[in-house]
Each structure stands twice: as C-alpha cells, then as structure tokens.
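To the wet lab folks,

You asked to see what we're planning to order before we commit. Fair enough. Below is the target structure as tokens, and below that is the sequence we designed to fit it. If anything looks off to you, flag it before the synthesis order goes out.
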C-alpha cells in the first residue's frame, strides 16, 4: 500500500471510531535465536490476523543477554477498528504497554459501543475463567460450570439482539 493509501485508510478508520496505537511486547528465552522468529510470528501472523486489526507494523530489537536469559522487545504500531478490537488484542496478546497515538484529544463512545465493549470484556473474562476452572475442577463439576457459561452466553446474545432490535 502506498503511503497516501495508508494515511487515507487511517483517517477513515479513526473517523469511524478506530484507534491508532503502539503496543509494546517483550519476550525472554534461554536461546537468543528463538526470540526474533517468535516475535515476528506474533506481529506478522497473530496480531495482523486478529479480528479488528486493520494493519500493524513492528520494530523488533536484537536480543540482549540478561543474566542467564536473552530478551527482546518490539514496538508495534497498529490501526484498530474500534476499542473492542484493542481490548481483545490486549487480553489475548498481553502487551507490556499500550500507547494511544490517535485520536489524540478525546475518544467518544456511543452507548451501544460501550455496551458491546463491556460484553466483550465479560466474554473474555469468562473464557479465562473457564480455562482456569477446567484445570482445577473434577470433570463433572467442570461440565456443570461449562453448561452454565453456555447458558449465560445465550442470554447475553439474546439481550444484545433485543437491544439492537433484531
């Protein structure tokens, strides 16, 4: 994409509620040669393909030795479709820092957008809870909790559909 096309895409996305952010990541390993391929995969395959990520570009630092391990970091500039996409990326890829580059003054959410973001947060929290519970409960207790989660998800979807008039 040409620079003018990127700028136009960025402008349009920001006008429709998007965010331009810088995400900071770090990784450690006992082998220096493992770090850059894993970080490249994170940027090129995972982040770039995450729902709501319009584009992203990253700068990956050369690994440095810290004690008995090697460490590297990356600064990734990403254009997000909306706040929900940023929250999902943050939950799923756990950057060590997030800097909002644009909009640079204020960010306005419509009530429906805020509700959608909060439902997304609730769903991600529920997924993490399910993940943790599946490893500490008996299979019978876990199946009961899993069914409760599924029912809760259905109720949430119905509430959203009702709110949206579907």
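Sequence we intend to order:
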């Amino acid at each position: 994409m040409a620079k003018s096309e990127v700028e136009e895409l960025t402008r349009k996305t920001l006008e429709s509620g998007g965010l331009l952010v810088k995400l900071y990541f770090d990784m450690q390993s006992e082998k220096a040669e493992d770090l850059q391929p894993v970080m490249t995969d994170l940027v090129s395959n995972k982040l770039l393909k995450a729902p709501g990520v319009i584009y992203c570009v990253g700068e990956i630092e050369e690994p440095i030795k810290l004690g008995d391990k090697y460490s590297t970091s990356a600064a990734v500039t990403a254009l997000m479709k909306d706040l929900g996409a940023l929250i999902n990326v943050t939950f799923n890829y756990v950057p060590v820092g997030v800097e909002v580059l644009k909009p640079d003054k204020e960010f306005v959410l419509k009530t429906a957008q805020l509700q959608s973001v909060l439902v997304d947060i609730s769903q991600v929290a529920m997924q993490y809870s399910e993940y943790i519970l599946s490893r500490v409960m008996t299979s019978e207790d876990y199946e009961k909790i899993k069914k409760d989660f599924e029912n809760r998800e259905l109720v949430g979807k119905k509430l959203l559909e009702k709110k949206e008039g579907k």
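Structural context that might help your review: Residues 13 and 116 are 18 Å apart (CA to CA). The radius of gyration is 19 Å.

Thanks,
Computational group
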